[in-house]
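Dear colleague,

Thank you for sharing your sequence with our group. We've completed the structure prediction you requested, and as agreed, I am returning the results in plain text so they can be pasted directly into your records. Please verify that the sequence below matches your submission; if there's any discrepancy, let me know and we will rerun it promptly.
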Amino acid sequence: MAEVSLFTRSFPRIRAITTRHLHLTHSLTHNNTATHAGSKLRAVPSLYHLYSNSALVARSSSASNTVAAAPAAAVKAPSVSAFSAVHSTGVHEGLSAFLHDGVVGTAGSPVSLTPHAEPTEHVAGTSTGAAAEDGNPMHLPVFPCEKSALMALFRAHTSGNKERAFAINDVGIVERQFKRWCRQLPRVKPFYAVKCNPDMVLLRTLADMGANFDCASGEEMRAVLTLGVTPDRIIFANPIKNVKDLRFARKVGVTKMTFDNEAELYKVREHHPEAEMVLRVLADDSGSVMKFGVKFGAPQPHHEHLLSLAKKLDVKVIGTSFHIGSGCFDATSYEKAIALSRSVFDLAEKLGLPKMTFLDLGGGFPGAVEGEQPADNVPVFESFTAVIRESLDKHFPAGCSVDIIAEPGRYMATAWSTLFTLVQGKREEPVAADAAQRKFLYYINDGVYGSFNCMMFDHASPVPVPAYRFMHDKVAIAEREQLYAANAAARSNPALLTNGVAPLNGLVGAGGAGATMSAAALHKPHMDANRPSLSSRSFSNHRNYRSFSNSNHGREPSCVATIFGPTCDSMDVIAKNLPLEELFVGDWLAIPNFGAYTAAASTTFNGMPKPITIYCRSKRPSPTA
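Please find the predicted structure tokens below.
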């Protein structure tokens, strides 16, 4: 902390640059004196920028033409320290980020990005006293519940007329999902599918809880190893691997990997003879939205040939894997796939192969949190786990000496992220004079080339919700308690009323005093000439959030909306003919459950920046209103 204090006193801006899992080599200038050419910056997830107001903002840059992959020998686990700046009101205006060893460059020497490499800002921080709390090694801001975090961080970010889209990522949700997994499937070790969301804070959270990792490339393996994860906690679960990644896996000691064809066996024998191979079988994925069997999985007639060839080549096969597809509607798909795996185990024994000891159940698990219904009427997680437990007891009973794993991706990542986008444009479409509804076109600052790429690649159908309605879905613990207290006080002392409404304060994280939050605060009338002439002052006088929960704030209550992303591509469409109240330029929209297969494939097409990312940790789910 001493060196951080020295930097913040002496230099208004300190920058360091990284790209996820990569090394950069740059020339660093030491405060107008010496030049250090060729200095290497160790691979960590973000670019850290220290603002003159002592707020640390981390920026994650996209890979550029100037970056080169780090050698395997450079992989090491970073230690983490933290620096916090908390506003006197208790709102996390300073929202500090992490400082990783070896990341910050020479004092006063910002490292330049390559042209057109627009970075994405990340914000994180801690409340007073919360940083030292057990179970919070990354010193994230801690809040009593999920909605408390969303409301406080939403207000902190949108104050000052900021326009950048942003995502609030809550590691508390990930922790609760992990514990739920352990309760429901105590015999099945989770290997998180990194491809779903390779965010390093998410990976760190899972690694610290003891999760293992499903990696599909050398870069994903390198990212996980950087966190201090040992190679035995990784499965290289890509049935078709390039030679470079095979050699990397051998060098760092990753041995478990999948295959589904004979060419892969010859490749592995030559480049990684110590590998422990897992035969990926073709499961029945007819009950899933996204079917993987069209690309991967050995059909049953091939099993005997592949096992016999592995024996002939002296390539070790330790077990089987399968994937029933994503968006599965049929829980019995797991039952059929587990029975198929049992037949392969028996076949291997018949062919004289060493006893198999490894079973991989793949992915396909829904991402909804406990107590909530998954999207598109997919069965809840517990429906799948009941079938899995029964099938395992039948075909692979306890004590059978078989290690059982699965590869949850969206299960862990979906609910941890809530995206907020800004309505930055609006146009009314002409309709017939007798039309029942007005039609509007809205333009927001994230789209299908950004976070909404999931609509194209993951069959997702996200529905943006006006932020004031989203915030009313559940209440923050602090809000509920203070509302009760305020109403009780107002009944006993009418002088406490403000314009006839009891005040509601304090929607912030642990350790902070209150800053006012209201539904009206989500609708700052500062950018839309068509907005009714209600001043922000008249809005802010109404402190009771719940009293505004069903108000349309002067909007047309029933309209039809088409929502576009920010690029110049007419295919950049988020929603068509969506029933929605009238929106205004400057309104914020919320997209909950947006952490899976979103940011992972996001681009900066047309020069549009990626959303800012804000990290926090909630202690529990929010109560219902």
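Summary note from our side: The domain at 198-408 is CATH 3.20.20.10 (TIM Barrel).

Kind regards,
the structure core
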